[in-house]
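step=encode ok
step=design start
structure_in=
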């Protein structure tokens, strides 16, 4: 750098040179990050899941919210901020699948207006304003009311053409803490938001946080609410907020030890003890320093309270525990700091990494004025987490699910062959009865054919096997005799050949539809197997039986695990009955009913 000419300023113990606008400095490496141009992150393969964290620094709109006093931008200034935001997301972060935002306005009169404007600008700039092209990104926003006095909140934008969202929930909005004078106050100014979703069959959870800042952490002065001074109050609240997040993660680990969690956001805490509290390690579940509790209203360096339940096993930091040039996301008076952190559960640690996009912190304030540049949208650099989603092989899940047939009907002949009597359409409820999340779920109908009169119920494959229709109901599957994949979702019309049902979380149910082509309306035996990704393969049922007489359709497992059914006909009425298991009764050719 040459030609650095300007006045020297001194403030907050820092010397700063203010270059003359008419005689700017000259850089020899204008293309380097932090000097001339922002450097985009790499384009990731479609098989990867990308999750960004962006503190967008008080992203307010051009409307006056009557519920609070907030900055009101001009329409031009607001449009310019939307443009810079769009440029960062598209050109620097490469359209992440999920964007966790901090400091988005949550208006009291129209909660979704700002997050919807952000989504609309992204969708328009990506050439997909109405989602007419599923191959292009289409973002949908999620935001909740905030406790923040300034009106900012955490929020999400999700590319719904890539990610299936199962739930978005806010937690801790009404939680309070007790101060030394026995008064209570709201704990979470900007309550965390939890997003559960799936990329294909890969289920994941994102927890987006924005913790209390370090402002006034060292302030002295008069006692307040029983604290010796304001600094003690700030330190206590920051510690309790960290424990809230840690306890939240710990509880989710208990409910589902296999949940894949990504924790992102503005932690307002370093990777180490900041001399007042060890915020980051408290959230990770590592032993903070100091390691023992103390009287939180009288000591300067706070330790976790007795209410702390650390994540077990601890989370893994993707921003690292050592300070280096790749970690920082914020500059404070010339000091590079890492306030924006990323942590994951251990089942993601080997397949996930994070990057910091150099587009904000290193660039001057004057870059905010250029709507054609992505630089200096905020004072924080965004981070992007990349998860290398493994290719998993679906396995038999019969021992982890239940299948109950709730409806049956005989429809017209789809297969078109003259000797096919019609299609059997079955509605069933599939429930994950285990604690294991099952992804890429599909069902397979096997053993199609007529049972003969032998005690073991051998399947006869000829002359015309029963055939499983493709899930769209348009054609017959040539693999029906050996078993074919089929699935539909939520009882709607079949949605496509071999389309996975998706993800079944523990105790979650889904309505599915099965459709079989019948060569003749007479007794028929078939078996339903459920496959998906999650856990080891369930054992295959060891025996078959036949249900004598007409019984209602309920699920009865075979020995081992399996779902067997028979189609019975009585006076023109079709009934699907469960196959039962057991040893054949002497003198009969049927198995014993349970």
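sequence_out=
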């Amino acid at each position: 750098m040459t030609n650095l000419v300007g006045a020297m300023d001194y403030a907050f113990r820092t010397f700063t040179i203010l270059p003359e606008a008419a005689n700017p400095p000259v850089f020899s490496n204008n293309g380097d990050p932090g000097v001339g141009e922002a450097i985009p992150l790499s384009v990731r393969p479609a098989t990867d899941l990308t999750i960004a964290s962006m503190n967008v620094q008080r992203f307010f709109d051009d409307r006056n919210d009557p519920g609070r006093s907030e900055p009101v931008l001009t329409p031009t200034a607001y449009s310019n901020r939307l443009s810079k935001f769009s440029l960062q997301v598209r050109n620097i972060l490469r359209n992440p699948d999920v964007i966790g935002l901090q400091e988005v306005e949550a208006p009291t009169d129209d909660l979704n207006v700002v997050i919807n404007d952000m989504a609309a600008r992204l969708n328009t700039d990506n050439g997909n304003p109405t989602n007419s092209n599923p191959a292009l990104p289409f973002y949908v926003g999620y935001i909740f009311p905030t406790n923040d006095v300034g009106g900012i909140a955490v929020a999400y934008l999700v590319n719904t053409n890539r990610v299936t969202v199962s739930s978005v929930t806010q937690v801790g909005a009404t939680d309070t803490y007790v101060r030394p004078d026995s008064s209570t106050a709201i704990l979470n100014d900007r309550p965390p938001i939890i997003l559960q979703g799936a990329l294909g069959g890969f289920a994941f959870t994102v927890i987006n946080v924005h913790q209390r800042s370090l402002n006034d952490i060292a302030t002295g002065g008069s006692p307040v609410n029983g604290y010796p001074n304001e600094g003690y109050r700030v330190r206590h609240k920051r510690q309790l907020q960290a424990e809230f997040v840690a306890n939240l993660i710990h509880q989710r680990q208990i409910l589902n030890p296999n949940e894949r969690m990504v924790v992102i956001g503005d932690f307002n805490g370093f990777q180490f003890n900041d001399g007042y509290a060890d915020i980051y390690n408290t959230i990770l579940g590592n032993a903070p320093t100091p390691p023992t509790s103390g009287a939180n209203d009288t000591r300067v360096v706070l330790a976790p309270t007795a209410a702390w339940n650390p994540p077990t096993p601890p989370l893994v930091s993707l921003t690292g525990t050592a300070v280096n040039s790749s970690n920082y996301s914020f500059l404070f008076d010339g000091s590079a700091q890492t306030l924006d952190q990323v942590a994951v559960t251990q089942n993601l640690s080997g397949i996930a990494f994070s990057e910091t996009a150099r587009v904000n912190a290193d660039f001057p304030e004057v870059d905010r004025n250029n709507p054609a540049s992505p630089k200096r949208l905020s004072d924080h650099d965004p981070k992007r987490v990349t998860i290398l989603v493994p290719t998993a092989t679906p396995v038999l899940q019969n021992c982890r699910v239940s299948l109950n047939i709730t409806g049956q009907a005989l429809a017209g002949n789809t297969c078109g062959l003259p000797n096919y009597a019609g299609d059997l359409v079955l509605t069933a409820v599939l429930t994950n009865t285990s604690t294991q999340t099952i992804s890429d779920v599909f069902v397979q109908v096997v053993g199609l054919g007529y049972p003969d009169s032998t005690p073991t119920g051998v399947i006869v494959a000829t002359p015309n096997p029963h055939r499983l229709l493709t899930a769209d109901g348009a054609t017959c599957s040539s693999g029906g005799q050996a078993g074919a994949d089929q699935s539909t979702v939520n009882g709607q019309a079949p949605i496509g050949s071999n389309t996975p049902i998706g993800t079944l979380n523990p105790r979650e149910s889904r309505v599915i539809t099965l459709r079989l082509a019948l060569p003749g309306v007479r007794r028929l035996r078939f078996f339903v197997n459920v496959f998906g990704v999650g856990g080891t393969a369930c054992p295959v049922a060891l025996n078959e039986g036949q249900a004598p007489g007409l019984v209602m359709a309920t699920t009865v497992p075979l020995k081992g695990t399996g779902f067997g059914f028979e189609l019975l006909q009585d006076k023109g009425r079709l009934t699907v009955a469960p196959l039962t298991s057991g040893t054949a009764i002497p003198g009969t050719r049927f198995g014993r009913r349970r």
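step=design ok
step=annotate ok -> The chain has two domains: 44-387, 395-578.
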